[in-house]
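User: Run a structure prediction on this.
Assistant: Running it now.
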Amino acid sequence: MNAEELRRMLQIFDKNDDGHITMNEQNDCTFIPDFELAQMIQNIGVNGDGYVDIDEFGALYKTIFTDEDEDMQEAFNMFDQNGDGFITVDELKSVLGSLRLKQGGNVEDCRKMINNVDVDGDGRVDFMEFKKMMMRGIKEEEEAAMENQKKKKNTKKKRRKSPRREGIREENG
């Protein structure tokens, strides 16, 4: 991640734009338990002021974000066409249209999609909102796959215990 990308990422977490991230600001944007987050900030905040500045944020970023997050950031960047750190209705419509997906066919559909994800109500999707949406989607897909596996196992068990099949085996046996 280059310096400009790091600065933009800091701005996502730095809610009051003071150039520092407090624990409360960081906590609002991550899925990390408070005690782990406090320990990370203490370990990363080398100057001991209780805040994370741009240099410390670079180190913290490497600690928090994995390769999976980088892949998610790349996906986010595909939608964030102007690179301002937000996905707008127009950007969403443009990307979905270029992919020839009918969901992006009109502005109102795209506005509804944005509103379903837009936690802070600013009419745009930032990276953390995008990530939460993607993680929710991944979790739902995993749960659906597990449910399908359970159904398949139950169907196999029912077939094995079927009285009709047992009767057929007795007649043939």
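The chain has two domains: 3-65, 66-173.
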